[in-house]
Amino acid sequence: MSGRLLTLGIDIGGTKIAGGLVDDSGVVVDCVRRETPGHAIEAVEHAIVSVVDELCARASVEGHGDVVAVGIGAAGWVSSDRSTVLFSPHLAWRNTQLRADLSDRMSLPVWVDNDANAAAWAEYRFGTARGHDTAACVTLGTGIGGGVISAGRLQRGAFGVAGEWGHTRVVPDGRRCVCGNRGCWEQYASGRALARAGKELIEVAPAAASALLATVDGDGSRLTGADVTAAALAGDPAAIELVREVGTWLGEGMVTIAMIVDPSVIVVGGGVGALGELLLGPARERFLAVLPGRGYRPAAEIVEARLGADAGMIGAADLARNKLG
Amino acid sequence: MSGRLLTLGIDIGGTKIAGGLVDDSGVVVDCVRRETPGHAIEAVEHAIVSVVDELCARASVEGHGDVVAVGIGAAGWVSSDRSTVLFSPHLAWRNTQLRADLSDRMSLPVWVDNDANAAAWAEYRFGTARGHDTAACVTLGTGIGGGVISAGRLQRGAFGVAGEWGHTRVVPDGRRCVCGNRGCWEQYASGRALARAGKELIEVAPAAASALLATVDGDGSRLTGADVTAAALAGDPAAIELVREVGTWLGEGMVTIAMIVDPSVIVVGGGVGALGELLLGPARERFLAVLPGRGYRPAAEIVEARLGADAGMIGAADLARNKLG
Question: What dotted CATH number matches A131-305?
Answer without folding.
Answer: 3.30.420.40
